Every structure is written in C-alpha cells, then in structure tokens.
Q: What sequence folds into this?
C-alpha cells in the first residue's frame, strides 16, 4: 500500500470536518475542483498555444495583444486582465517568475504550483536562470539567450513554447495534450509524442 502525503491527509480531514459541521457541501467543492482542473487551468493555456501553432493569424494577434486574443477563445477573468505573450525560439528562451509574490495568469494556467511561489525560485530565477532551469530538468545551450519575465499585478506573462519537431501532421486538438503548464511558464519544453 502506498502512503499518502501528509498534505493530502490534512486536506481530507479538513474537508470531512467542514462537511460534518455543515460549512461546506462536498458536491460544491468537487465542482469547484473540477472547474479548476478542466475549465480554469492549464488546459485553457494549452488550447491557446495549440491554436497559435496551427493558425498564423491567431499567433500574430496573440503576440500583439495577448489579453484580447485569449478572450477570443473565451478565457478571461481575475488574474487575467492583462496578459502579455512572449514566444520561445531556438535562440531565445523566456521564463516567468514573480519576484514579489506569485502573480500568475489564472485563466490560462490555473492555480500556481507551489514551486512558483517558493522564495528560492523567485530569487534565484532572476540571478541564475540557467542553473535553476537545469535543476528543473531543462538544459539549454549556452548560445540560447534567456529572458526572465517578472509578472506583476499589472502584467501577467504567458510563454508561447516552441512547437516540437515532428508535430506538423497533428491537428490543433491533437496538439493540446502535449502542452504543459511548465512549458507555458518557461521551465520546460513541449515534448513530442
């Protein structure tokens, strides 16, 4: 039997306690969680990226005015009022950090991961991005220029990752599952099938 993480056990105990006291409805909580997993999360961003990879006009609009282009696909809301999209290329790699807190484009990426909010990530990514990316599993050639984008309450950043080689035959819908949250933050690359 696999041991469950302590955080999962605490969460379950808290949910049970709040339910027993009539403070929450488990069905409502399940619906909220499902919304964040499927409707307010990285899947939205993956749809934006896949559209940009398959539709050159949409890609141009996205890079020119991210917020408006993202709204075209129906994604907007709190923490997404002003999203700027930057493109990774073989020569330039963008990575996002929020040095002050954890500003993050929720409508297209969902809830920020714990490492994104970690003070070590926030401080080190600015000073030594190549080393931090390598520690996270992304080795970039010395010839690749790394640009660190600092999210703020006024501007949230989204990375348009490079489309992986060998995916030209894939449709927009087939590309969506390849795109990860980490690639849209810039700490990973999209891997082909």
A:
């Amino acid at each position: 039997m696999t041991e469950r993480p302590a955080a999962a056990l605490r969460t379950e105990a808290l949910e049970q306690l709040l339910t027993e006291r009539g403070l929450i409805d488990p069905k409502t909580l399940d619906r909220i969680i499902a919304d964040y997993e499927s409707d307010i999360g990285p899947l939205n961003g993956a749809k934006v990226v896949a559209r940009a990879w398959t539709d050159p006009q949409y890609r141009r609009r996205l890079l020119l005015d991210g917020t408006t282009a993202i709204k075209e696909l129906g994604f907007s809301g709190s923490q997404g009022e002003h999203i700027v999209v930057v493109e990774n290329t073989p020569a330039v790699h963008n990575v996002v950090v929020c040095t002050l807190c954890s500003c993050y484009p929720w409508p297209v990426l969902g809830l920020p991961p714990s490492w994104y909010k970690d003070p070590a990530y926030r401080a080190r990514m600015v000073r030594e991005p190549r080393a931090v990316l390598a520690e996270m599993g992304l080795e970039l050639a010395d010839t690749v220029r790394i640009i660190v984008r600092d999210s703020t309450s006024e501007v949230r950043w989204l990375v348009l990752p490079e489309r992986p080689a060998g995916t030209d035959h894939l449709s927009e819908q087939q590309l969506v599952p390849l795109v990860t949250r980490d690639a849209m933050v810039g700490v990973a690359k999209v891997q082909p099938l």
About this structure: The first strand starts at residue 83 and ends at 87. The chain has a mean pLDDT of 91. The radius of gyration is 18 Å. Residues 6-20 form the longest helix (15 residues).
